[in-house]
Amino acid sequence: MLICFLGLEITAGLQGEITKRTTNAPRALFIAPILAGLVIALFAGITSGIFHTGSSAALGLPLAELADLAAGKWGRVGILFLSIAAIPLALNRIITLLTHQGYAMTNDGFWPESLKRTNKRANTPVLLVAVFTILIALTLFFPLDYLARLGGLLYLIVLMSVNFTLARREQITAAPFHLPIHPWIPALVLVFDSLFILTWVEYLPAAGLLLLIGFAIFVGYGRHHSITAKEGITIFKTHLEEVKTKQSVRVLVPIANPDTAETLLRLAGTLVRQQGGKVIALRVITVPGQVPLSEGSSQAETDHALLDRAVDQATKEEFRVQTMTRVSRSVSEGILDTAREEQVDQILLGWLGDTRSISNSLGPVIDPVIKNAPCDVLIVRGDHTQEIKSILVPTAGGPNAPIGARLAATLSQVYEAAVTGLYVQVGRATPRRMEENRLTIKETLEGLTFSQPPEKKVIMANNVLDGILKEAEAHDLVIVGATEQGSFDQFAFGSIPLRIAAQAPNTSIMVKGYSGAREFLSRRVLTAIFNLFPTLTTEEQLGVREELIEDAQPGSDYFVLIILSSIIATLGLLLNSPAVVIGAMLVAPLMSPILGFSLGIILGEGRLVRTSLESVFKGVMASIIVAIIIGLLSPLKEMTPEILSRTQPTLLDSLWLPVWPALMR
């Protein structure tokens, strides 16, 4: 199996070197398993030819015994010479494959660039060949059995990683092949691999040491250098001389949509014009993971229409712009790689304002950027930024409010716009509380220079969202910052800022500040922990929601199951049978309306809450009536231990009883 897998892996990895790939690649994939079987047969013959007669019986291989009988004296000698000749050929092929993989990893930035220097005469990366030759020579100092088992263990760990990724990853809808009963197959393989690895526990320390060395090399060298070499190849970048000032800023503007590019560049130019900074207009070319990044070079070098328009707009509006094209696996990765390399101060992104998702999602591009950006992020919705006369800055004293206030001050000076600091008081408040609200506005706007003194306004409303949206009707621009929420929601915009920006009548800007390396790392750790658990896509969440709403309805199936479970439970109590009582728990459908009730509480849907409570009440009443009828008709009138044990419930019973049916479902 190992030889077969290696053959398939080599064939897939060398597709770029196969001529007529459409016909020859399938043939190679088909021939690989056949050749693996032949190699096993030849190996049995070689072992029987090298060793004396009878050694095949000790090996316990049927093929070895067959070869031992058929080889004879001269057959063994011939096989011995064949094996001696095969050793250098196999060694040459191993070094070639290792050099090929090492060269690819060097191109990706994981190893030093000097390793891929080629000898002009032999056209061979001699340093890579020398490194792998030395590593292979070092293996001669270790026992062969130990190396074989250690290599098998490392290979098994790789398979476990692959199956773990497959179990967590959703299958692509448009893929021609779908794995059946996904993700159970990779999950079961992962379980068997975990059990099998327990037989090689004594080799785990050595394998862990090798993995630790590789991880240290990746963290210390490979991760940083792979940003520029692998996931972010810059194909086109104009030269722009740096103008160093005390307040020089760099604003990154990814441009892809011609309808929003002009608005984003105009706003970015406004931010950098007074501070001597520059705008980096970025265009990202995406390449699928199965295709080398170099395949995007031709597309990146041909289409420069948006970048040319950016240069023309910068010349007209008198701000400095540097255009750049990057090839990456995804748009978000290209943006983040550029932000790190260019050390930008702000990222300016456009947003259409679509909030049909039930989650606080801004889209597959914006979400990763706001989670992992090493700088401030500004999300712009709307295109009316030419004539801004009034700016609204809602604040509650959060960490991102000062960033929004500074942005409002800059725009106020450029457009001579009036700025209003707003605090929404929910419900009635004492005079002291109202004074504290005004003080919050004052602290947010303090120390900033505006074209005219800002207005500090405190209003009362039933909820924050309605109050801000009503006040926004009288302003041209709303600048709202991300809310300070718990650790589970800190890395995304809160629902209130998201809804404000989406529903504001005019242009809106959401601001997410960079909170520093410490919080950035903690957010990455939390994200990594959350990614270990299965997550649902938006479509799957909607499907679960519809299913729970449907199951919460008290239909005919619901009452049939209630009656059956009540009969089973009552008979189990009368017959003193715990197994029968547990069987009734499996049949009872009460968990469906209970889950619907929980969903209604979370989503704030009063109708679903009422329907779920109605279903639970009707189910409980039906169970009681059925139990009374069976108790009256049953000839068993004694109090069994199962009945008596439920007359004195404990705290553990109250905790366990709701959990058990949920686990069974």
How is this structure best described in words?
- The protein has 665 residues and is an alpha/beta fold.
- Among the domains are: 2-219, no CATH class; 540-664, no CATH class.
- Helices cover 59% and strands 11% of the residues.
- The chain has 25 helices and eleven strands.
- It has an eleven-stranded mixed β-sheet with strand order 1-4-3-2-5-6-11-10-7-8-9, sandwiched between helices.
- Strand 5, helix 13 and strand 6 form a beta-alpha-beta unit.
- The radius of gyration is 34 Å and the shape is flat.
SSE topology:
Blueprint: H1 2-13, H2 21-50, H3 55-59, H4 62-107, H5 126-138, H6 144-168, H7 184-197, H8 204-229, E1 233-237, E2 250-254, H9 258-273, E3 278-286, H10 297-302, H11 305-317, E4 321-328, H12 331-342, E5 346-350, H13 366-372, E6 376-381, E7 390-394, H14 401-415, E8 418-426, H15 431-445, E9 455-461, H16 464-472, E10 477-481, H17 495-503, E11 507-512, H18 517-531, H19 538-551, H20 556-574, H21 578-587, H22 591-603, H23 606-633, H24 641-645, H25 651-664
Parallel strand pairs: 2-3, 2-5, 3-4, 5-6, 7-8, 7-10, 8-9, 10-11
Antiparallel strand pairs: 1-4, 6-11
Low-confidence stretches: 49-61, 484-494, 660-665
Average residue pLDDT: 76
Global shape: flat
The structural class is alpha/beta
- The tally of helices reads 25
| Gap between N and C termini | 38 Å
Number of beta strands: 11
Q: What is the share of helical residues? A: 55-70%
Based on CA atoms alone, the radius of gyration comes out at 34 Å
- Kindly estimate the percentage of residues that lie in beta strands according to DSSP: 5-15%
For the sheet with most strands, the description reads: 11 strands, mixed
If strands are numbered along the chain, what order do they take across the biggest sheet?
Answer: 1-4-3-2-5-6-11-10-7-8-9
